[in-house]
Amino acid sequence: MKNRGGRLIGGGSSSIGLPIVFFLCLFFFLAGFFGFTLFSQQEESNLRPEPRLLELEEEKEYRKFEPLEHGSTGEGFLTTIPFQVLSWKPRALYFPNFATAHQCEGIIEQAKKRLAPSLLMLRKGETEEQTKGTRTSSGTFISASEDKTGILGAIEDKIAKATMIPRSHGEAFNVLRYEIGQRYLSHYDSFDPAEYGPQKSQRVASFLLYLSDVDEGGETVFPFEDGQNMDPSFDFSKCIGLKVKPRRGDGLLFYSLFTNGTIDKTSLHGSCPVIRGQKWVATKWIRDQVTED
Ligand SMILES: *[C@@H]1O[C@H](CO)[C@@H](O)[C@H](O)[C@H]1NC(C)=O
């Protein structure tokens, strides 16, 4: 048995047995090495999926589905927009790689030329002096129709699909830049009539498209997520709760209103101070009525 075993490997001759054993060893070493490399690449891509890999995976998953007959306002193809539910209280969704790097750069280029200090909507009886320091970013409004490159139009289309709220309900994009130390204290995007007076229309949802990475700080924060920290003594400058790190091209959608139209108190959010780097973000506020923008 031993001999036969030897023959199987060495072909019966000990003089050619050694090279074969050597090549087998080399083969298994290389197989192991490349196998590991493949595996570790997969690990990495789990953290931040490569768009191409993701597409392939989705293609596989959806190949068995054929598009249905569609209505005259529908589309003849299937589309996938990956998202993660970050929270139900408030309803918040994360969209990795919602926009391309090229799109983000194109938006920043257009906004740079017309930045001005960001403004605040004042409550009844509130003065600008009282709200100093609440919102320290610079920004500008750009509507998709002003953007001759078509980038904002494409983004607006995709946001409309992700929310199923028509483009006509969106305000113009508010493109913001936060430099080191700049922030936006936690606030609501919706306007409580008790504080702001009667409203002709209300902000239902907000879509934030991060246009840059930020080295440190600049997270979007939801301090009241799942009812946490909701005591009257809460310090609105605190960056505690659910935090979303800005990364170029990623989107964040959250709803400020419940489906019955009342304000979701857990939708309070802010922008933590930038500690290192610079934060660029394009915000689209979506209303319950058609807007003029
Ligand atoms: C609206 O909906 C929320 C969430 O379901 C609920 O907590 C609240 O009581 C409702 N308010 C009214 C006025 O119906």
Automatic annotation (TrEMBL):
Give membrane topology per the record: Single-pass type II membrane protein
Q: Where in the cell is it found?
A: Endoplasmic reticulum membrane
Keyword Hydrolase carried by entry? no
* Coiled-coil features, chain-numbered ranges: none
- SMART domains found in the cross-reference section: P4Hc
**Keyword terms:** Dioxygenase, Endoplasmic reticulum, Glycoprotein, Iron, Membrane, Metal-binding, Oxidoreductase, Signal-anchor, Transmembrane, Transmembrane helix
GO MF annotation: an example:
L-ascorbic acid binding
Q: TM spans, by residue?
A: 20-39
- Principal EC category: oxidoreductase
Q: What is its EC number?
A: 1.14.11.2
Ranges of residues in domain Fe2OG dioxygenase: 168-288
Q: Which cofactor does it need?
A: L-ascorbate
The record's catalysed reaction(s) read: L-prolyl-[collagen] + 2-oxoglutarate + O2 = trans-4-hydroxy-L-prolyl-[collagen] + succinate + CO2
For this UniProt entry, what's an example GO CC term?
endoplasmic reticulum membrane
Similarity comment = Belongs to the P4HA family.
Name listed for the protein in its UniProt record: procollagen-proline 4-dioxygenase
Native species:
Lithospermum erythrorhizon
